[in-house]
Predict the 3D structure of the following.
Amino acid sequence: MPPAAERVCIVHDGGLPALVACLMAEDPEQVVAWRPPLGVAWGEGTITEVHAAAVQQQVELLSLGRLIEAPVLASNEDERRGGQGLEVSTLLLAAARDALAERCTRLIWPVCCGSDLDALYDAAERATLLTRLIQLDLEEAGREMPVGGRMLRVEVPLADLTSLQVAELALDLDAPTHVCWWRLPGVENVAGGMTTRTEWAGALDAAARAMGFPFAPVAA
C-alpha cells in the first residue's frame, strides 16, 4: 500500500503563485489553504475581500481539503497602521500554528523572487530559520511531531522563479487563472489591482507564445 500523501498547508492570497502551489500538491484533499487576515499587507498588496473571494473559489474549484481564514492578530496592528516590522514572520508563524493543528508536515510560502538575489536569499533564510524556531518550540514544549515524528518544514518552492516561469507552470498545470484575485470583479477597486492584472496577463501571454499556444488560455 503506497504511503499517504503529506498534509500540506499553503499560505494563499488568491494569486497565481499560490494557485500553482496548490496544483503542485500530491493530493488536493490533503491541502489546507491558509488565507492571511483581511487588511494586512501580503504579497502583491493588501489582503481584501476580493482576495478572500478568490481563495474561496479556488478552494471549491480544486476541492482542497480545508480553508482557514486567519483572524486579525494583535501583532498585526502595527502593520495595519503602516509599520514595517516582523509582519511576514509573524504571519508565517501564525500559519505554522494552524498547520500543526491540522497535522501538516509542510508549510508552503509561495513567494516568488525571480532574479532578485537578495530577496531570494532572504526568503530562503527566513524559511530555514522559522523551521528551526518551530522545532525548538515544539521540543521545549515536549509536543508530538505532526506525523510519524516528521517536523513541520517551511518551504519556498517557487522562490527562484520569475513571473514568466510561474506563468509557464500555470499553463503546464492547466491552472484556472480566471479565479485569481486580479481576474475577479472588484479588482479595479483594489490598490494596484489593475497593474497586477496587466502584469500577470502579460506573463501568461508571453508564456503561451513561448510554449507554442496561439493565445494564453485565460478566461475573460
